[in-house]
From TrEMBL:
The protein's name: Riboflavin synthase
Gene3D superfamilies xref list: 2.40.30.20
Record function comment: Catalyzes the dismutation of two molecules of 6,7-dimethyl-8-ribityllumazine, resulting in the formation of riboflavin and 5-amino-6-(D-ribitylamino)uracil.
Top-level division of the source organism's lineage: Bacteria
CDD domains tied to this protein: Riboflavin_synthase_like
Broad EC category: transferase
GO biological process: riboflavin biosynthetic process
Catalytic activity, as annotated: 2 6,7-dimethyl-8-(1-D-ribityl)lumazine + H(+) = 5-amino-6-(D-ribitylamino)uracil + riboflavin
E.C. number: 2.5.1.9
UniProt organism field: Fusobacterium equinum
Amino acid sequence: MFTGLVEEMGRVLSITEGNHSMQIKIQCKKVLEGAKLGDSIATNGTCLTAVEIGKDYFVADCMHETMKRTNLHRLKKSDFVNLEKSITLSTPLGGHLVTGDVDCEGKITNIRQDGIAKIYTVELPKYYMKYVVEKGRVTLDGASLTVMELGDSSLGVSLIPHSQEMIILGKKKVGDYINIETDLIGKYVEKLLSFPKQEEKKSKLSLDFLAENGF
């Protein structure tokens, strides 16, 4: 579990392609503090397991499902990625509850200046719009952001100058793809409301049954 507060931007050192998979080596520093083999590190919002940890890097495997769902398959050597290590019970929850299970990719369709801020419009599959609400939270490349605009199949977020410097969204341009994780609570609510009700099991205990058995 994560908070969506990006700790640092790492840089891709190498990518090794496999059979419907890949292994990435990422240069970083802050997320390695206290990290150990097998720990989870959100990489562009995707929960990855560190299979090797060095002094200033970690290595992670990406399986087929990860490559299908996320923008990690688009990475190239020297690209920057957002990084956050998994939280503990003592971690301040400054963003919102983020699982690191990316729903889909979104595409940046517009970037415009609004005073000191930049507003990014992101198009995503219409299916996932039901989990996005105005002034709710959405995770873009692992960063917890507030939804300020809603379209039929798009959302808009605003970045202050500090955020533009601290997360990779500030480096992206129109046409680039980003990872999207929608609200976890909305998914559970939908599941509970749509799950078919089971018929209550009727007890076989009755007055006739008691009488037939000598009671």
